[in-house]
Design brief:
The chain is of the alpha+beta class. It contains 25 helices and 13 strands. The strands form 2 sheets. Strands 4, 5, 6, 7, 8, 9, 10, 11, 12 and 13 form a 10-stranded mixed β-sheet that branches. Strands 1-3-2 form a 3-stranded antiparallel β-sheet.
Length: 547
Amino acid sequence: MMNQNTLVDELFNLRHQLGEPFALQKRDLLEKINPETLRSKKAITTFYDTLLFIMAYPDNKKLYEQAELALHKLGTAIEANENLRSQLYNSGITGSQLCADFGFEIVKWLRQTYKQNVTLDSFAAPDYQILSILSVVMPQVESEILQDENSTWKEWLKKCTVKGEDLLDTLITLFNQSTIRPEVKDELWTALGIYITINLTEPVQLPASLTKIHYHRSLIKKASLKDNGEKFEKVKLKKEEAEKIFECARVILACYLREIDPISFSDWEGVSYYQLPRGMSIALFGMRPERRHPIDSYMGYMVFKNGLPFGYAGSWVLFDSARIGLNIFPSFRGGESQHTFEQILKLHKQAYRLNRFSADPYQIGKHNSDGIKSGAFWLYYKMGFRPIKEEQKQLAAEEDQKRQTIKGYRSSAAVLNKLADSRLELTVDKKKPVRFDATDLSLLYATIVNKKYGGNRRKAEQESYRELTETMGLNVFDETFRYVMGNWSVILMSNSTALLKNKPVLKALETAFILKSVGREEDYMQELQQSALLRRFIEETYFQYFQ
């Protein structure tokens, strides 16, 4: 009888091969592999990744169902074997266990959603640091008990713990009830270094009601952003469906020990869901008002393939331009990554009315070893992205020529690191798009503060905010509105003479501030896009300092 590990390797090598003969071979191997007999970490990890790949790119229904059943059997076998759970610690594989420090919002949600499977493990911070942080988070009258050794922080929290709850619940309640600004609260929670343990009991996938299984005859290896007039279908979601999408996105990121703000700081009402061809679907996530970026719109997305979480990233939208990234989960690499990226860009163009995309250096490998190892630069380059810096643009053209003329040529890590030292951009419409983003406006802000206020940020912000409220004739009481307006004020009032003369721009700004602070993020984007005068004003202000 053939060794089980050898069978797993054979199945792994066949996973990309599609067609009836290969489907029969894959089915035969799945019949022979017994998940309960796998004992090595390498074999289990390979088998797990292969099963996910087959479910994402199945030849037929029987093969899909066979892989799905094997996935459940594997998870059950791992969960029942303490030695395997120990080997697979922090692997993210179903049946295993995670231990990591996540942000406050994610820990709170995980505990509420999976109470018995989420427990407190340990604190990374020393006692004196925990004491100091809790003293800030607690009401002053209560925190006095922690001073001068009257009580240890742990003793006091145990006294405050409600029956049926534990220390983790008490900490979550304490932070949840604090009036500290959300972003400060996040930093204080992170500084505590709270590690939680999560038992992964079920595979992460969407329910059947949100999934259209696609059976593949071949893999699409090339892609093009050519406009074929296609429109992607937006699904009208029930609350429970939106919550399931939201749940899948959060849990799969936790499995990979990751978080991104639009998924951490969203809720079911911030989810939009689109069905695409070939079993693909994409969920878009917007943040709650108090968590949003004040200038651009930081949106998240999760790609699903046959209901399985396939990849994710964020986009930062400003006017008709967006910075964007892409992360394909390791199990699915070697499939249709290029085609997936094409669909992501097309959906973003449709949903957010975009004419330009850009990619930050990190996305293509700067200080990101995974980006270098995967050759992420060429994924973007094949889609039409080009370096903004001239040196990298020329180097990329030379490397691309070598790739096309020298069989098997691969750019070295040193070359890829050099290519990653420039942002990339792609224009997808003949219309002239905005050529700057929030990163550029950050540089503009710093330049204004240094040149006009001698580097005094406090003076710049206070004077600009006061002048802007007077100019707009506003009495602002909402904290989020003040936060948004305050972040815009230095840039806007650096060109105050032109702003005072432009009532349509002032009106558009007021509408935009309201939408950003209490409305829908998508409506804020549209308001910026619809006001040609506002866009022109920001462009003129920017180009006063940068040519």
